[in-house]
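Q: I'm a student working through a structural biology exercise. My instructor gave each of us a protein and asked us to get a predicted structure, then write a short paragraph describing it. Mine is Myo-inositol 2-dehydrogenase/D-chiro-inositol 1-dehydrogenase. I'm not confident about reading structure output yet, so if you can add a plain explanation after the tokens, that would really help. Here is the sequence I was given:
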Amino acid sequence: MRIGLAGVGRIGAFHARTLLGLDFVDELVITDADPAAAERVAGELGVRRVPGVEDLLARPVDALVIASATPSHADLLRQGIAAGVPTFCEKPVAGTLEETLELARLEAASDVPVHIGFQRRFDAGYRRIRDAIAAGDLGFVHTIRANTHDQTPPHAGYIPTSGGIFRDCNVHDFDAIRFVTGREVTTAYAGGSNKGEPFFTEAGDVDSGAALLTLDDGTSCLVSSTRYNGSGHDVRMEAMGSAATLTAGLDDSLAMRSAEAGVAFPPGPAHATFMDRFQPAYVAELTAFAGVARGDQPSPCTVRDALQAFRAAEACDRSRHEGRMVALSEVADL
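A: Happy to help. First, here is the predicted structure for Myo-inositol 2-dehydrogenase/D-chiro-inositol 1-dehydrogenase. I'll explain a few features afterward.
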């Protein structure tokens, strides 16, 4: 397959290296809004670069991967759909709820497959929780705890366009909760605080957040996020049921230490970034996208799915600003 990649920043360059290691990729062609960045990555990886996405689509390519800056996602996704090219797009689909709704409608009216990049759907631990819940191995699930804790914050310039901590970090947790439970969020109550760099406050964001979600079967979900987890990158999910509890992310790399005497677990080392933590999941995700592009399988994560995670994030952000519980029925849907 000939794959076009739009965006070669941190995640884009990571995807480029991942794609080049996959058997089904015969050629990778890249572009970036920063020509110097595209030239540098093309030279490092020995791939072809072109000036813009229009040039990628004109080659033509068998599939398009969008890993550019968040504000460009929506326009590039529209271009991929208009060209009839199967498209993978990193989250978020768009920066606003209104634009996400528009793209979900566009997807629904088209037969072009779109796969949105929520890589936790391809993590072995999260998939095992999903299978266990579906099989009834946990009994009835009463509580889920999910967290996304970054070791260090991103650069100051990233935050104003990130959408805020719930849309940027916890949106992965919201999608994963839907994925493992098969349920929908009905209410959200959220808050946050700033104890770190002032650029979070200046952008109207927080550097640490917490949310309580209720699902449509009554399950309580406790969700947290921070940009300052000095022990390492920590992403986990605990599904607690009447018969058993199962946890994803509980292994030797767990970024915490026990306060109990004589306990050596976990020995480490901890992960430093999400790319370390989810490298196998990214490989599985892009491999699945190839199947989507070939028509072998439906999209495992549609724009419609991304919309539902975004609606939960939107509810949390409204709750933080308004100091009240927000029903998901208050947030626009298709």
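A: Here are two points you could use in your paragraph. The longest helix spans residues 303-322. Residues 123 and 281 are 5 Å apart (CA to CA). It's a good idea to check both against the output above yourself.
Q: Great, thank you!
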